[in-house]
Design brief:
The structure holds 2 protein chains of 2 kinds. Chain A is mostly helical. Chain A contains 13 helices and 2 strands, in the order ααββααααααααααα. In chain B, a hairpin with a 2-residue loop joins β18 and β19. By secondary structure, chain B is an alpha+beta fold. Classes of the chains: A mainly alpha, B alpha+beta. Chains A and B meet through α8 and α9 of A and β6 and α2 of B. The complex binds adenosine-5'-triphosphate (ATP) and magnesium ion.
Chain lengths: 284, 370
């Protein structure tokens, strides 16, 4: 088995490796290089050193605003999505009637694509806000909370399923033992139930974290027109495509530098996540 | 420190559609060690869980320590329970598992520590106090589960087949540990088991249940020597009691039991209740270990010799289990004999009527001898 595997190793690996090189590694390296240049097209670039990185923080005011907004959005989303999803999961594991139906209902929003969701919610929210003479697209605080609502609506069902699976893994006898030991239901929740679903909590936290941090489609469709409610990914996109004219090459360079910083942030999150889940697995 | 009283307790599941326990009335005395036995699904665990408060009582009343507890939550009943599946908290160390209940009762740390270490030393699990349950063997987990109950000093100790997952050696060991524990703690124990040896050796009294009904509630000795009906007679003792249909006849002044070409005089001490069964058939019960090998010469006045053909002969150390047919019944005899017996051999067996039991054919109840 091992021998055969060794013999055909190149046959299986080369295509994947080639695809990986062409579609990921080479563009990645080129992207890093381009962040130190001003360019109109990929082969018409001019080296400018770290000027782009400086411009992000001096010339372009949108980046820090977006970064702060993204962090706020991510924290609010993680808390609200996980708390609500866990609460619903607790309710729906209570052997009540109709739980199967509600599980399906809560999961459904997850099946709809982000762009579509964004447009639907923009219609709904603006429809309601219209009575009060406001518009989500241009009011940053409504825009922010609208995005939170949309994200919750989409992600809660998915997280709920993960929590339900985690909760169902707790043997009924454990809860009974806690009751006999004298634990109140609230105490059981905090001393028994939550510690026992910690693996699910970790998974859900990181799923919401990465999904919120990298959010793009929903942001674009719901309130993409306003600079004040652009999250990081959308801000980068806009830096590239919302500028025309003479300074285009400069904006391209700045956008590229932003993308590299974005990559570093996501990489740090991914790394922390990897370490966290690894440690959990060892503990298990 | 607590007596338990069941008063016409009923348990129904699925909105009353399934009746598991129709009507249960019995008393467990303070400090008594009571064992519940019965076939699988007869309602032993359900009964235990009603005492614990894990199952609602559909009807009737349950008292613990003279207090009606129908509507008292498990946590307020002051009971400890050992689950068949251990039910240890997997995310807590052995120490924390045992300390959890005490911590909830706001006991001082020092006292908790003393209690946990005391229990751990008795159960010989001191080296594992810092481990998580998953890093323990089945037997060690079982002992942690016992320890978790021990530190509590509860009014009532409930154990649901606590030894069923252990190997034979460990089981024997734990059996004596639990008996010692009962002596030491001086509390009421209710113990569920499938295992007859456990029931017979540990219990002060045994409840034999069948389909949610108590067939007999008595001391192990009484259950064995005076089973109330054929169910109890067949359930207690291993291999189970032989049942042979026989005809009661009267000759001169004595009663005789006739079965499959044999006739056996019934001793006067057993005749009383049988008189009204004259010329009717009853069930004769005789335990395999009360049949002996006949070596001739004995006075066989109140017994009879049976020529049996061994279908199967099992050597089990000092004795032989002989399976044979008698009339229409299949019987087993466990006899001590020097002779080597193998399948197909003819053996002479001695039935002693003094150790026989008689049961009514219709009601299956034992026929009173006095
Ligand atoms: N939640 C429930 N819903 C419906 N029926 C139940 C429920 N729990 C138990 N029963 C039924 O009640 C009967 C008694 O169950 P119980 O667990 O008390 O049996 P047991 O005597 O402990 O059996 P075993 O020796 O196999 O553990 C069984 O027929 C079982 O199917
Ligand atoms: Mg059971």
């Amino acid at each position: 088995m091992h021998k055969t595997l060794k013999k055909y190793f190149p046959v299986f690996v080369v295509p994947v490796l080639a695809a990986f090189l062409v579609s990921f590694l080479i563009p990645f390296v080129m992207g890093i290089y381009l962040s130190f240049t001003e360019f109109r097209t990929v082969d018409a670039s001019e080296w400018v050193g770290i000027k782009n990185y400086i411009s992000i923080f001096t010339q372009d005011k949108t980046f820090l605003n977006s970064l702060w907004l993204t962090v706020k959005f991510t924290v609010v989303s993680i808390l609200s999505i996980n708390i609500i999803a866990f609460s619903i999961a607790l309710l729906l594991t209570r052997k009540l009637r109709g739980t199967d139906f509600f599980r399906t209902v809560f999961f459904m929003p997850n099946l709809i694509g982000g762009i579509v969701l964004g447009h639907i919610w923009s219609l709904i929210i603006n429809g309601i806000l219209g009575f009060f003479g406001v518009d989500i697209t241009y009011d940053p605080s409504y825009g922010f909370w609208g995005l939170v609502v949309l994200m919750n609506w989409q992600m809660i069902g998915y997280m709920m399923i993960i929590y339900i699976a985690g909760l169902q893994n707790i043997p009924e006898h454990i809860n009974e033992a806690a009751a006999i030991d004298g634990a109140s239901p609230l105490r059981t929740l905090f001393s028994i139930t939550i510690p026992m679903v910690m693996p699910s909590v970790t998974i859900c936290t990181f799923l919401t974290l990465t999904n919120s941090f990298k959010l793009f489609d929903q942001n674009l469709a719901l309130n993409g027109k306003s600079a004040e409610t652009s999250l990081l990914a959308l801000d980068i996109y806009k830096t590239f495509y919302d500028h025309t004219g003479l300074r285009l090459a400069e904006w391209h360079g700045i956008g590229q530098a932003k993308a590299v910083i974005f990559f570093l942030l996501v990489a740090v999150i991914a790394f922390v996540q990897l370490r966290a889940t690894e440690r959990k697995e060892i503990e298990q | 420190m607590a007596a338990i009283q069941f008063r016409n307790v009923a348990k129904r599941f699925d909105n009353g559609k399934v009746t598991v326990i129709p009507d249960l009335t019995f008393d467990i005395k303070d400090k008594e060690f009571v064992v519940l036995v019965g076939p699988s699904g007869c309602g032993k665990s359900t009964t235990l869980r009603m005492i614990a408060g894990l199952e609602d009582i559909s009807d009737g009343e349950l008292f613990i320590d003279n207090k009606k507890v129908n509507d008292v939550a498990p946590k307020d009943r002051d009971i400890a329970m050992v689950f068949q599946s251990y039910a240890l908290y997997p995310h807590m160390s052995v120490y924390k598992n045992m300390a959890f209940a005490l911590k909830l009762r706001k006991m001082p740390k020092k006292e908790i520590d003393e209690k946990v270490r005391w229990a751990a030393s008795i159960l010989e699990i001191e080296p594992y106090l810092d481990r998580k349950p998953r890093a323990l063997s089945g037997g060690q987990r079982q002992r942690v589960a016992l320890g978790r109950a021990m530190v509590r000093n509860p009014k009532v100790f409930l154990l649901d087949e606590p030894l069923s997952n252990l190997d034979a050696k460990l089981r024997t060991e734990m059996r004596s540990q639990i008996t010692m524990l009962h002596k030491r703690l001086q509390t009421t124990f209710v113990y569920v088991t499938h295992d007859q040896t456990e029931a017979m050796t540990m219990a002060d009294r045994i409840v034999v249940m069948d389909k949610g009904v108590i067939r007999q509630f008595d001391t192990p000795q009484k259950l064995y020597s005076e089973p109330a009906d054929m169910f109890v007679a067949g359930f207690i003792g291993s291999p189970r009691m032989n049942f042979i249909e026989c005809m009661i006849t009267k000759k001169k002044d004595a009663l005789y039991a006739e079965f499959a070409d044999h006739i056996m005089r019934i001793p006067a001490s057993k005749s009383k209740g049988l008189e009204k069964y004259e010329n009717r058939s009853v069930i004769l019960g005789i335990r395999p270990e009360e049949i002996s090998a006949y070596s001739g010469g004995l006075n066989v006045q109140e017994s009879c010799v049976i020529n049996a053909k061994a279908d199967i002969a099992e050597m089990t150390g000092g004795q032989v289990n002989i399976y044979f047919e008698l009339g229409e019944s299949r019987c087993i005899a466990c006899v001590k004999t020097e002779r080597k017996i193998s399948a197909g051999d003819e053996v002479k067996l001695l039935f002693d009527c003094n150790s026989a039991h008689f049961f009514d054919k219709e009601t299956t109840k034992a026929i009173a001898c006095v």
